[in-house]
Amino acid sequence: MNLNIPHLLRIEWMKVKNYKAFWILMILFVVSMIGINYIYWYVKQQFVASGDIAAQAAGSMIFGDFRFPAVFKTVSQMSSWLLYFPGFIVIFHTTNEFTFRTHRQNIIDGLMRKQFVVAKLAGAFLLALVCTLLILLTSLVFGLISGDGYFSLEGLQYIGFFFVQSCVYILFAFTLALLVRRAALAVGIFFIYGLIFDYLLAVWISRGTETTLGYYLMPLQVADELNPPLAELKKVIGSTNQWIALGISIAWLAFYCFFPIRKFEREDL
Questions:
Q1: In angstroms, rounded to a whole number, what is the distance separating the alpha carbons of residues 72 and 224?
Q2: pTM for this structure?
Q3: Cis peptide upstream of residue 69 (ω within 30 degrees of 0)
Q4: Closest of 233, 254, 228 to residue 167, by C-alpha
Q5: Using CA atoms, how far apart are residues 185 and 78, in angstroms rounded to an integer?
Q6: Could you tell me the CA-to-CA distances from 194 to 31, 52, 106, 169, 224 in Å, in that order?
Q7: pLDDT higher than threshold 90 for residue 153
Q8: Residue 63: its pLDDT value, please?
């Protein structure tokens, strides 16, 4: 079987380039990402301008540091709340294939079932990469305007963590869309589960075992642990190991790649 990824990506691009929902959600992601970081940066500047040492320390803990090298961590943390936008893109795009039966037409036109799913997976990874590059660019801009010209690439690993986190969110959304096949239902489950129940289950398991086990088990929470908000505060109450969280996140990504292929190859169209 020929898995020509560039060719499969071109097929996906032909499907989304005139899709209004894709562009609207991407614009919302970019605007919201810049906006939320600007708000936090502006508030942090007010704490700095106050001259109060205690207020500055509180500001750094709550709003992060936008100077190099901490800016990569801060922008990644703030922007991770917005990963539902690319997740919605994947859900709408995938469920439309089933709503309008274009998945059947692709198979009739000669695309193998595995190629169809691999095209979707490649598009999801590319979308995660685009989001990550936007985060990197935003980090560089805020770092340069906050640090009096000082520049450093130290802490760049947090951009890599964001890429893995975005892949987990996007591929989780893709797997959900493949299972549910209804846009409204998939979006509702993705948003509510990701925002509320994934974390609650992690807390419940962790309290029951008196460990941080729950934060490693939940599919989205473990990715959040790569760069958790208020990480400094979490150190006081117990925190997870980032590198263990990274390994488990990659294991979830392997599952999100293997399961959709196997499912789509075996089920009726």
A1: 15
A2: 0.92
A3: yes
A4: 254
A5: 27
A6: 22, 37, 31, 9, 10
A7: no
A8: 61
The position carrying tokens 């263990």 is 244
Domain ranges of the chain: 5-195
**Taking a C-beta distance cutoff of 8 angstroms, is the pair 260, 174 a contact?**
yes
Question: How many whole angstroms separate alpha carbon 167 and alpha carbon 173?
Answer: 10
Q: How far apart are CA 234 and CA 111, in angstroms?
A: 48
Decide: helix, strand or coil at residue 147.
Answer: coil
| Residue whose token pair is 């460990």 | 211
Q: Is residue 107 within 8 Å of 265, Cβ to Cβ?
A: no
CA distances from 215 to 30, 178, 223 (A): 28, 25, 9
CB 108 within 8 A of CB 117: no
* pLDDT tens digit sequence for 154-187: 889 999 999 999 999 999 999 999 999 999 999 9
What is d(CA 255, CA 249) in angstroms, rounded to the nearest whole number? 10
Q: Which two tokens stand for residue 42?
A: 């502006």
Residue located via tokens 């991770």? 80
Q: Strand, coil or helix: what is 158?
A: helix
Tokens found for residue 41: 């940066």
